[in-house]
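Hi Y.,

Following your request, here is the sequence exactly as I used it, all 488 residues.
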Amino acid sequence: MTTPAEIQFKDVDLDAVATITGKLAVFVGDNGKLDAGARKVNTLTRKALARFVESEKFEKMSTGDVAAINFPVGLAAETVLVAKLSRRPSTEKARKAGAKLAKAQGDEDLTVLAGNIARADEIALGLALRGYKFDTHKTGDKTPAGAVTFMVSNPEEVAKSAAPMAAIAEGVFFTRDLTNEPANVLTTDDFAARLAAMHELGLEVEILEEDDLERLGMGSLLCVGQGSDSPSKIVVMSWNGGGDEAPFALVGKGVVFDTGGISLKTAAGMEDMTMDMGGAGVVAGVMRTLALRKAKANVVGLVGLVENMPSGNAVRPGDVVKSMKGDTIEVINTDAEGRLVLADVMWYAQERFKPVGMINLATLTGAILVALGHENAGMFSNSDELSDSFIKAASLEGEGAWRMPMGKAYDDLLKSRIADMKNIGGRVAGSITAAQFLQRFVKDDVPWCHLDIAGVASVKSETALAPAGATGWGVMALNRLIADKFEG
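Below is the corresponding structure, written out as tokens. Let me know if you'd prefer a different format.
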């Protein structure tokens, strides 16, 4: 997998500044005040830094922005990167500055003169997250990423606080890799194998094959993949870092490629459907993070892995299938397949693990993209407490989420003439009726949230902490939710 930059934290050595090669980063307050490291650089460069700070360019920079002074005199470094940031920045601004430094770093070594600036660990996290590059399938020579060193006044303390953030970065990278992989590489077999390999981190991993799913009566999930040569599976990942309490459950949609099935999608943009396993990717990334940081909580992550393909054996519009719960479903549109997968996995999670709560994630509907764009995931819930806790966690991590309505009038749109329900409710309120469908497979006593991440899992342009492509949205928010709500 792609690995985040290894960041070292060392004592400040101002005497060594003149001989540092590569790129050198300093921080200047919004008011133009230079700290000790910046003052040293200013002296060595014959006040080039002070002249820049007095310039119109610096004045127009926003907090967290970075500008470059190239080939400064008096330094071995080829570039001085000037980050406009106060000594006590917010988490958001600290991560923004780190991300801007990562963009400016390129492939050169980078030394950051952080001194005693607050939230140096958050700056490092922003730098690590934005340094992601998915070049697995590019041929030719690949220039390795440059080394990153933070010079700080308290290196041991900062390194200690940065350690769990390194686990977060690795979880996010794992999610991004999975979401970016093409479908001819990330088959259901390959996906399951990558998750099984995480047993080395201390996760318990179990793979349920099609025979197991048939015995469990998972007709809803199995119908989605019956037209594909790739076998459908469920992978169960358990992290038991707490006591004897029941686990919190995460459930992810893992459609490794979605053609729409017999209800075939149009050709334009179908290549993006490699990301339709984004929900499962987030669950996998969270479980990796929890294992790496040795979380003191019990969490189980379950993902349903299928491929939705048209063939002579594919499920047809008008077919009726039976879920593990026992409810029958009239399949009106085979392109509304994610909810069919989640229905059986969610019911299985509740029957087997009796979780204290459950959150499912899925790139479920285009309707949520129309409603919320790329700024927020849509959240649906039966629990004010759990939804409020998630919204708070997401806000603290800078990951947008917006609670959407639910209700009986929407649920009534799923009524079927020949079965217990239809798998779609028509054109209107598409993301809401999808959530209503899922709620039918949630037990009354289980606090539950559904996150529709179709607009945030993968985007065409860069975001604050990620290049274009997979974002890893949700790993940080769910990790924080678990830390705040279940680790005590």
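The chain has a mean pLDDT of 97.

Thanks again,
Q.
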